[in-house]
Amino acid sequence: MSEAKSSRDEEFREFVAARSASLHRAAYLLTGNWATAEDLVQTTLTKTYLAWGRIRTTDSVDAYARRVLYNTNASWWRKRSNRERPADLVDDRPDHSRDFAERTAVRDAMWRHVSSLPKRQRAVLVLRFYEHRTDAQIAEVLGISIGTVKSQASRALAGLRKRLGSPSAALGLGVGGEEAA
């Protein structure tokens, strides 16, 4: 193996070590399934490695990988939209507290609603609220206009509000945002 290829491989290994956990979290939020998220990250890293010679000298390696992640997810969704339907995940861990159970139920209900959103709307919400990206950054990652980012976010939030009814009731909160007894 040549010294240049060895150096290239080491740089890529360092990138994977530093960024794979973040990519896995984002992939899970996009897919709602850990196994699919792992496949999505593996494909993303493969595509990133193949382009490593072009992108490793830029400051945007992470942005490139994230764009590959979101674009690959969209591509997979288009291919599978009529074929696969994921089953609900079962949590086998024991539940020792009612508060934990209630929080879990609320989180699961919210995730079911978010998962039912169209892929682009879900991607916009993940980028905005999980990764704290600006509209301009979201537009760049997804390859869409800022206006499209705003309209997709608006539609996604309106859809969630409609499905959940009152935000306070849906989250188990009382008047003023305090937890209901």
Observed structural traits:
181 residues; Arc Repressor Mutant, subunit A; 72% helix; 0% strand; disordered C terminus
Shape: globular
What's the total number of strands?
0
- Provide a count of the helices: 9
Query: What structural category do the secondary elements indicate?
Result: mainly alpha
Report how far apart the termini are.
Answer: 65 Å
Q: Using the coordinates above, name the CATH class of the largest domain.
A: Mainly Alpha
* Helix residue percentage: over 70%
Q: What fraction strand?
A: under 5%
Total individual domains: 2
Report the major sheet.
Answer: none
Please name the CATH architecture of the largest domain: Orthogonal Bundle
Rg from alpha-carbon coordinates: 19 Å
CATH superfamily assignment of the largest domain?
A: Winged helix-like DNA-binding domain superfamily/Winged helix DNA-binding domain
* N-to-C order of helices and strands: HHHHHHHHH
CATH-defined topology of the largest domain: Arc Repressor Mutant, subunit A
- Uncertain regions spanning at least 5 consecutive residues: 168-181
Mean pLDDT: 80
What does this structure look like?
The protein has 181 residues and is an all-alpha fold. The chain is built from nine helices and no strands. The protein folds into two domains: 3-57, no CATH class; 98-174, Winged helix-like DNA-binding domain superfamily/Winged helix DNA-binding domain (Arc Repressor Mutant, subunit A). Helix 1 (3-31) runs antiparallel to helix 2, helix 1 (3-31) crosses helix 4 and helix 7 (135-142) packs across helix 8 (146-164).
